[in-house]
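User: Can you predict the 3D structure of Cytochrome c domain-containing protein? Sequence below.
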Amino acid sequence: MKKFLVGAAALLAAGYLGLTGIAWYHDTLYTESTADQPAASPAAAQVRNILDRNACYYCHSTKAVLPAYASLPGIQQLSRYDIETGQRYFRLDAVFNALHNGSPPPQADLAKLERVATNDTMPPMRFRMVHWRTGLNPNDQQTLLTWISHERKRWYVTPGVAAAFENDPVQPLPHALPTDPRKVALGAQLFHDPRLSVDNTISCASCHSLATGGVDNRKRSLGVGGQLGGVNAPTVFNAALNHTQFWDGRAATLQDQAGGPPLNPVEMASTSWDQIVGKLNADAPFAHAFVQVYPDGLSGANITNAIAEYEKTLLTPGRFDAWLRGNTEALSGEEVRGYNLFKSVGCASCHVGANLGGQSFERMGRAGDYFAARGDALTEADNGRANVTHDPLDRQSFKVPGLRNVALTAPYFHDGSVTDLREAVRKMARYQLGVTLSEVDVDALTAFLKSLNGTYTPATTPTSAPTAPASSPALAAPP
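Assistant: Sure. Here are the predicted structure tokens for Cytochrome c domain-containing protein:
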């Protein structure tokens, strides 16, 4: 009985501290951070009020100020755990900025908020037991969902999408992106040109073959002299739609990404752009054609600009896009069921947008220890995003891969550890979502993923690079 009374008293004290803490949180952190920062709209003000009232920033913001009670023994450890976990998996800072200045909220953040609002999963129950006033009421849920729908339609709807899918986290591919055809033609040649490598043996297309889904289907790619890269090569198709490039996001743009491999000592191993420019300048016809488009001539900046312009044309629309645009016959019943599962199970909380991914960084093993189950020794590449930010909370987080043509791009994950698509589906459900799928559901999800195969229509045919193919074959759907 005595233990019960002590426990009850502790719980009541914790509840009091929780209520006091939330009041303190409002009176200090939000007064400091929002009083002089009016919301972008009345709807934004309502959303921010909901996030404030539920202390969402307490665990999901890098700018959170801890309440005084968080330093008490016991509570301090719990607070630290909650904050580290919250910031590792979802940071609201970009949403907060959007609510203040009207900028686009990240697509993946909208999808996560939608899932929370729909399923009422946040704040977690343990937090609510202490902070009694938190939790979304039906009006909060509707307010959040209405704002999310508005923001999606404002920033992320693909022109031509059927009205029924305007508010979906996934969108059809655009028909094309704006490009300069002259730069595209040069970029196509350079993409296939092995002279970017030190020994004239490796081109961009060596690891990103347009005939095999934009990858080389190797666990790790081969560079100059047979050296092995550190991660599985991601597809180049639809990469223009990613918010950053490389698994760890170290390249902010396509052009930045194009500049990495030529000077990487394991990949193309050229010693400098001057070395590459010297070889290309020796090709008089190519150099003459180049200066017609870039008057200041060959340079690392201009070469990578041309390659990036070409990569913007590497879009692969397919049956799924036709279905999203209103062709109800484009997908089978099983594929449609798979897409609905893709959303309801939670896959679409990260695999968002027209590329079904590429819009956020996520921890590999959100719901289970993927790396322990893998068994292999950890590598530097397994640190993921932390290699760029040097933030321990980013350790083992990676850019979410786009799922376009995923049936063609095995092996899977940053480490290329899985070769079978069905097994990849099972592992992602288990380690990212904490879900064990039935074989029937694996069948449906796999059928949907196969419907994401598309067709690439070359915008130009490379002609002067020594190893350029006569044409770039379209992607073919597997039987």
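The longest strand covers residues 361-363. The chain has three domains: 2-156, 181-311, 319-450.
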